[in-house]
Amino acid sequence: MNSMTPDRGRLFGRHNWPILITGGLVVLLLALRSGDIFAGTLPDNDDMMRMQQVRDLMAGQNWFNVDQSRFLTPEGGQMHWSRLPDLFLSAVIFVTRPFIGQAHAESLAAVMWPLGLLTVLLASLTLVMRRLNIGTAGQIAGLVFFSLSAAVYNFWPGRIDHHNLVVVLTVIGLAATLSPRSSARSAIIAAACITAMLSVAVESLPYVGALILSFGLIWIVRGHRESSRLAVFGIALSGFAALFYLLDAPGIGMRRAVCDAYGTSHLAGLVGGGVILAALGALGGGLDNWLKRLIAGAVSGIVILALVVWVNPACLGDPYASVSEQVKLAWLSAVGEARSLPTVWASEPARIVWQFGFIAAGLVACAIMMASATEGRRVACAILGLMVVLSALATVWQIRGVTFSHVFAAIAGGWLFGVLFERWWAQRGAGPVLMLALGALLVSPTSWRMLSTPFEKPSITSADGRGYGVTCRDPEAYIAIRDHEIMDIFTPIDLGTSVLLRTPHRIFAGPYHRNVQGIDLVTDVFMGSPDTARAKIEAMGADHVLYCRGLIETVRYAKLRPEGFAAQLEAGQIPAWLTPVDAQTETDGVARLYKVATE
């Protein structure tokens, strides 16, 4: 690796125009997808739930209360989402609503938020790559690789769920950790990002641990030069941990004794860990060799983990232990982002080839990077390697980990491309250009996507060529029923958020693990006997049913229970006790509302 040059260490310099143009093109190309958002669609259930959460906040719902009052579930509509993403969205809506109206203000916010985060992410990725001594060609390649990866989906217009914010905070925290100046400012920024990302989503926990471990690793290797920064980092970590615990939803109370969100055990780990790290930094002079620092760091890590477990030992258990077998079979096993590698391979082998192929390429590039690093750069390369490996393991466990693993793989791939490009630029000739071409093919997500083509399975689409997941959520069907008197509507799980966002009506379940009893009730109806479906729906208190033939969820119920209620509906056999509200009976890919006839 070449030595650090002045321009590589700064975010903006006289050689930055190619990088700025690349980043600008990435943002512009994604901005072209904004038309669908202004047409009233949002990409995902979680995006719709986020917008509804923002609406509730602006309508006067308490900051610390993120529950959904229109969930008629036995649990009472419990949610655990952070309020942090709501701040920007509600601010944009509040400012622009008087000029362009509520609907367009919401659409504008849903476009600005992910694209704004994308801009910050591209700048942060560039800074990380410069601090890893990656040249201009490698930086451009890294940005391009990211824009072609699966991780970029979270930055499409309309993606207002929390995943993109967590990725941005993680990369900023990584950039601060890799700061060559060992400044107090970098320590404070890293501590703020670590606490904020955990407060937003517990899925960031592996990267929270990795960044904290990275600060300890830098201190172990560099010794007293990092003692002051470690002390500042520890103090800031404790302070921010307490601050976010106090100010972010759901506030102080028993609802913080949880494992699926920023809870008391996480608070204990961050505050206690921060105090211990500050103490280690203050003792910098007494721990005068790397072995002593390693032992002190290892003991401290054990103490911190023990503290976390002691506060809430339940967090070591199976998070889905209380979920019924029926819910696991009918719903949980089909939740896209929660599936493991073997499960995804059985249903979507093409996805495994291209997504894990790119991850593997990133691992190879990172291994070469670490093996060729000079002594002064090995720690930084090891930190990136830690991120790549952790994110790869997380993706094997749950496919949602690709949100992070493709980001880190893009950085490693950019480094390899940059090295090969600089070698070709210096030597020219057939050999270097061949190596550059082969290297580019290896680390490009597009190559792996093309290789996955033979593994693709044919997708089922509606008459207009769109997937049923899209047509069943078409806003028009919901706009037609929003002016009815308030109804309690029984819906498939995956259509509940569409009803919440687009109508004032109430529902009985949504795709959220804290509403598992509601999910259990819905699956029980659809997979149960057609003869008992009416009684079960009435017992829940529902006066209407919303159904859309071809929806992946109900098709799955029909396959699991060919004799069940969902199978009857999928066969086009609407029972006599369901009367179409709009007098139309066509349901193929169209959400239809039915009134439940009273006996």
In short:
The chain has 599 residues and is an all-alpha fold.
Order of helices and strands, N to C?
HHHHHHHHHHHHHHHHHHHHEHEHHEHHEE
Count of helical regions? 25
Tell me what portion of residues adopts beta-strand conformation: under 5%
Per the principal axes of the C-alpha atoms, what is the gross shape?
globular
- Gyration radius (Cα, Å) is 26 Å
Q: What's the total number of strands?
A: 5
Class computed from helices, strands and strand pairing: mainly alpha
Strand order of the largest sheet: 2-1-3-5-4
The overall pLDDT average reads: 90
Give the count of structural domains: 2
- Give helix % range: 55-70%
The major sheet is characterized as:
5 strands, mixed
State the end-to-end CA separation: 78 Å
Low-confidence stretches: 1-9
Topology:
Layout: H1 17-31, H2 34-38, H3 45-58, H4 84-131, H5 136-148, H6 163-177, H7 184-200, H8 205-222, H9 227-247, H10 264-282, H11 290-311, H12 325-330, H13 341-347, H14 349-372, H15 378-397, H16 402-427, H17 430-443, H18 445-451, H19 468-471, H20 475-479, E1 488-490, H21 496-502, E2 506-507, H22 516-527, H23 530-540, E3 544-547, H24 552-560, H25 565-570, E4 578-580, E5 592-596
Parallel strand pairs: 1-2, 1-3
Antiparallel strand pairs: 3-5, 4-5
Helix pairs in contact: 1-4, 1-5, 3-4, 3-21, 4-5, 4-6, 5-16, 6-7, 6-8, 7-8, 7-9, 8-11, 8-15, 9-10, 10-11, 13-14, 14-15, 14-16, 14-18, 15-16, 16-17
